[in-house]
Amino acid sequence: MKRQVPLAITAVVGIVYIFQYFVPHEPVSKFSDWFSDWFAIIQAFAIWLGALNLMKLSAIKVARRKRDWIYSLVTIISFAIIVIVGLFFSGGTDFQVRGTRFMYIYDNVYDPLSSTMFAILAFFVASASYRAFRARNKEATMLLLAAFFVMLGRVPVGDMISAFMPEGLRFSNVADWVMNIPNMAGQRAIMIGIALGIMSTSLRIILGIERTFVGGD
Amino acid sequence: MNFWVRLMTIDRRIIFLFVVIAVTIPLFLNISQEIVVSTEVQTGFDAFSALQPGARVLVACDYDPPSSPELQPMAVATFRYCLDHDLKFIIIGLWPQGPQQANAAFETVLGYPISDTITYNGKTLIYGRDWVNLGFQAGNELVIQRMGSSIPAAFPRDYRGTPLEDLPLMQGVQNFNNIDFVMNISAGYPGVYEWVQFGVDRFGVRLVGGTTAVQAPLIYPYYGSGQLLGVLGGLKGAAEFEGLVGVSGKATQFMLSQSFAHVIVILFIIVGNVAYFVGGRKQKKT
Description:
The complex is a heterodimer of chains A (217) and B (286).
Chain A: H1 4-22, H2 28-63, H3 69-88, H4 101-132, H5 138-153, H6 156-161, H7 171-206
Chain B: H1 3-8, H2 12-24, H3 39-49, E1 56-62, H4 68-84, E2 88-93, H5 98-110, E3 117-120, E4 123-126, E5 131-136, H6 141-149, H7 151-154, E6 181-186, H8 192-203, E7 207-211, H9 216-224, E8 230-233, H10 234-245, H11 250-285
Parallel strand pairs in B: 1-2, 1-6, 2-5, 6-7, 7-8
Antiparallel strand pairs in B: 3-4
């Protein structure tokens, strides 16, 4: 039963969702709406599950004084502060309204910290580009040329540099060509491949052939 | 170790320093650049500007603070256009931070904190009548699917807990048939992909997608097939959109820094390749 019930639920929900795409009328649509509402509830709980799991792992790290345990302590304290402030000291359901303590933490702590973490990537991208973009062979040279034209074509200075060229050869137009022709062709091929893979895997899951998600082989 | 080999293995902190200089110095310069509008931004703007006053625009803000330098200007320009042309807008988020980012963008347009009654260019706008923020809903793409059958079922309350039936703008809004246009500003999953697959393909939504520069190449096939009416890609797309809306915002200002940074990276790549070929040959000779 421990495996049969999840497999049965998966099969029923999967078949209903496939069926309702082609028959979007009642009563099929009622089932898919019902399942969608359940999914929203389960996902909301999953967010909490993820957060609580993080707290549990952090607490274990702090209790056992593992390497870098101080960062786990910061995680726990930050989580507690934001949850408590948001739930009890920010006007209830109005906690996202400007002027609440929750939004003060969001604007002055979360926003600048997370933006800074992401901004650091710019330096590593520059450094990695310097080391990786070498014309070692034909493929690397093509990649290098595409990067050259797209990087310069995506900024106004590219057109300034290539202003003397015929319009079709200006960097912005070359970048547009790269994006709209070879890039689009490649992305289409990748998308179709991924879609076929998803169809195949989904069918295997719905039919119970793929059982790894319930602990099967 | 000869000069060229040392150049190939240059300390990355030197590269970091050049990037810092390239990004920060332009912030103090007053140089204007001509920003040429690309086709995909122009077609997106044309679809947006075809809306009549009173049309309902769904602005789906699916991003968080790390992506806000590229995407926040798009949201600001969108809200400014809506206010200038009397379009009603409904804010939602499939990312938890999206509705807060949307409020911050709206406040940038107004120049002061949002309240229930605001004044913009002599017009009085009332929350619930002229705009609403329905907040975040968990469920990713299934929220989009649920909205296709019933928006009140997907978002029974706004971000402050007010029931939808108490919001005049949401009266008569049952599903996407009652929404005239969707502007999706997204940084990943769920985002433009899901809006195309579930909104456009299933329910015929009219959609323009704004994404980060990293994600933009991935959604070009949807633009090529006509499923996306336009693509705003990265900071350049945001700057182009700002120009079309008629405002010089953050994206336009930051394009100078981006120009300098791209040139610096390109120069380093050229230097690295010169060092590779010259230094490699000299090493082979010895």
